[in-house]
């Protein structure tokens, strides 16, 4: 961690935020006391509650994140509201691979509390039609992305770089960012790209991994936009 802080301070800051975030989860669900467990019955209400826990406890961790801490409160709220859904979608895959590793194959996803589900089980889960339409999109995104991310074998700095990119993405916002906020966000983007370049030693071949990561980000955002649209249709 000390090496990261000296060489990539902004990415290291995001890494510390993520470590603090996962500690909150481990404490909440006592995950450090037990191995991930395969379950046969998916409870979508429990999953929604876990997402609410993440959302309610997550924003406070960003209080000192470089550039984000300089934003007007309205811009912080708008960015975090947009950030949390693609973050939770991607992080579910990263967390699964990081904790479960090769113990289970690509047909399984792990939830925040450590419960693991086969995708076949998820697709047979009982829930109201309006929720089923949304979760089908979420499940299909997990099934599509998990083997791709496993193959890429992300380093932790690459993962937190994705978190930063998701945070600074101003697409799909419910409310516009202020002019002041746009300039702060622009500077925030520049510094994470610079640090990532340094992480790759300015090697153009290594940098090609970034194009793969960005392509994944675009697809993640599209999945989120798709299920948000479904929520509106079913309301």
From TrEMBL:
<protein>
    <submittedName>
        <fullName>NR LBD domain-containing protein</fullName>
    </submittedName>
</protein>
<dbReference type="InterPro" id="IPR035500">
    <property type="entry name" value="NHR-like_dom_sf"/>
</dbReference>
<keyword id="KW-0805">Transcription regulation</keyword>
<dbReference type="GO" id="GO:0005634">
    <property type="term" value="C:nucleus"/>
</dbReference>
<dbReference type="Pfam" id="PF00104">
    <property type="entry name" value="Hormone_recep"/>
</dbReference>
<feature type="domain" description="NR LBD">
    <location>
        <begin position="6"/>
        <end position="235"/>
    </location>
</feature>
<dbReference type="GO" id="GO:0003700">
    <property type="term" value="F:DNA-binding transcription factor activity"/>
</dbReference>
<dbReference type="GO" id="GO:0006357">
    <property type="term" value="P:regulation of transcription by RNA polymerase II"/>
</dbReference>
<keyword id="KW-0675">Receptor</keyword>
<dbReference type="InterPro" id="IPR000536">
    <property type="entry name" value="Nucl_hrmn_rcpt_lig-bd"/>
</dbReference>
<keyword id="KW-0804">Transcription</keyword>
